[in-house]
Amino acid sequence: MSDISAAIAALLEARSRQLPAVERESARWKTLGEHIDDLETALAALRTHTAPDAELTASLTFPQLPEIRAGAAEAAVSFQVIASRFTRTTVNLGVSGAARMGKSTLLQSVSGLDDRQIPTGDGIPVTAVRSRIFHSPTVRRAELEMYSPADFLTEVIAPLHAALSYPAPPRSLEEFAAWRYPESTDQTRGRLLLTRLRDLRSALPSYEHLLTGGVKSVPLEEIRPYVAYPTDEEIRAAGPGGVPRAYAAVREARIECPFPHEHVSRIGIVDLPGLGEVTADAEERHVDGLRNEVDAVLVVKRSSDTSSFFDETDASGMALLDRVRGYVSSTGEFAYVVHNIDPDKPHLAENLRGDLLRNLNGGEADRFFTVLETDVRDPERVGREVLTPLLKRLADGLPVMDAEVLSATRGRAGAVRDRIRLQLRDIRGALSLVARRAGVPEEVNDTKAAQLRSGIAKRLRLLVAGLAAEANGSADPAYAQAVENAYQGVLDWIDDGFGRGADAWRELALTRMITEGHPADFAGPEFNRIRVEISRRFAALDDFFTERLTDAWDRTAAAVAAECGALFAEPAPGAEGAGREVLERLAGLFDESSQPCPDLAAAVHSLLDVRLEYRTLLYPRVRPDLAPLNLQVTHPDTGEEMQQVAVPLTEEGAEELYGIFNGLAEQAAFRIQKSLLREAAVPAAVVHALVEQFEDTLIRSGTSPQEFRRFVRSYRNDLWPEEFRGIDEANSRFARVVRVTEEIAALAGQEEER
Q: DSSP state, 336?
């Protein structure tokens, strides 16, 4: 590996180490922006209740928030752009420039491809699709990312409609195919865009089948029509249907092939459609492509009879690069000019050389932009005069550029963070004013909290007493019926030849016994299957357990909600199955109150986290009843191990074996039924214990009185809306603003990772 290649590999490794921290920063700023949205919504809700007091309402108005929100969004995007940069496993060079400057020829010389993959041409734009080309010493392939019909209409057709001020674009390919466009327009650029639009419509049958939205693999030798505009010859030779335009279906091409140069093991080339092309969104496509895909840009400028000077199109293109470089201190560190010279016309090269010196670099060679001279048709010269000096410069300069970009992005984000902190200070001041204006004496809160806690305690105590009576009373007939249903289901399955049909079971047993020469080879696995299936079928009791647990939640929720006024208007307490939803909302209110109530929330979460299941409650009790369903069993008298299936290898033996299995399975099912019925009190006892534990934790934990006071402060206006109509620190809308403010403060207080 050369020194340049090693330096580039080290750069990429350093980027990968920084990536997790940058991604966390992007996620943090995205979340900050979302929280600022929540804050604006919460403030708006609070202002609706302060409307009678104009001063309070004005104090809760913060017109700077949308601008701060935009700053947070910009920070998130900036960090994401850096993350995209640090994610790349290659150093990517963008190749740009106006059409007919030799851009495609330079790409050929760098990549070793030819006109079949990177088309060139004189007089007309050639490159129709952005291509990314990567060095691979062994692979030659092309993968095309295709538009879906919806994406094609949105990303290709809609911008053309907008640029031409046409009505809303077609919503389907059928609508596009039938769209009637005018024959011409007065403006020159408009005529060019209209021609492109009409060409795409008339050629739709040639590429409609390619609009798959997936990735299409194409041999490199066949890629040209997918990435290039048709030539004049192809257009003239086309029949009545027009020339095919497969490129219209392609969003992007990725090519891998061996580059014929050294230092390129971790290099990628991004081929961008030419600057100065007439497309609806050419400028923005360049900005987006360059910002997110490349580390440096080569701008090709050709010395010719018509272009031996730096013109307005070139200046516009360089201005785009100035936008793209972002926080890199100098455009010249990001963009390089490739002077494409013609050795046979040295005077033209001299003219452009002088013009670049004067108009681009202010009379001093490479002052603002490094100019690399070469004949782009000569791969050897391109390697020596462009690639080698460029890659050496980048190996040294890209780490500095990365540091500049990251430092400046953090600086901009830090300024937004400071504005957030100042805004939060103002918001807290406004909240203090609201609290002072409409305060409620603390003794009122204490009285209401005690009343609420006592009321809930009485209702839960009555519920617990009722559940205790159910647990100590006669057996639950619903439980007995559930056991009987499961038992009957097992018997029906046994009678059906253990799910195979009796005749089929005997036939299979006979076949296996004869084939293996012994009944044990069939009986052992079959015992296992039957044992597992019987156990599984008794697990149908889970439906009964679920109903009992749901009923307990419903009754508990109704007891709590009855004391909480309008707080649980939706869903209606007591509605079938609504209990869990009410309890989840209660836990959320405890968690989210302006003064959190963690122990009360934990009590509710513990009740909701319970699962009543046959396999955990009763399976251990009935497991011994399944023991006889095994090939080897213990003799009850001698204690010796013995086999249960000593039968002849005949039809009579298979019949006898069926009888053995049938009898053992029915006996096991009967024993399980009896064992389960003996445990009839278990479900009710478990439900009683669960609700009693919930009641004890909610009402009598050490923090219960204090947390009920907190709960009342946060939701007093919702608990007793007829008594408390004002706005104060206890109002839920007030609490929401406080909570979101604290969340933003916590996020804004995190220091960026270095």
A: E
